[in-house]
Amino acid sequence: MDPFKQMTDWRKNLDNFFGENFWNEFDGIIKPTIPQINMYQSENEIMCIINIPGLNDLKQLNIYVDYSTLELSGTIDLQHVSGSVVKEEILQGVFEREITLPFPVRADKIKATYKNGLVFIQLHRLISDTSRRNKVNVLLLEDE
After folding, report:
1. HSE-up of 96 (CA within 13 Å, CB side)?
2. Which of 65, 96, 132, 133 could form a disulfide with 73 if both were Cys (CB 3.0 to 4.6 A apart)?
């Protein structure tokens, strides 16, 4: 008997019993989210540091900010194909993440840079009530 078929049947039975959205609560535990992000907040500023290794073309990364939401999409591709995998802890692939920010941010004062596999996004608190979704451009910082 195929063990993967058994696993699929087992998951379908759990979905029927607990509901289709049952597994959503376990996504971060079963399959860690990519890219990883650290967020730091001061009184009027948010600094997001996002781990995206091997990004050669900044156009492959999309960052949008809308009021109090940060949206990330792109691909992490380390482009290493020689040999067989012995251990693989750096997650790769297509990603989409939506992160709720601790407060609304200004659309006209966003700075994003990329260096050494990390994206740094600096956001500033919004005092006004007007908002709209804005594309964020990322600048490549050269090694000194």
Report:
1. 0
2. 96
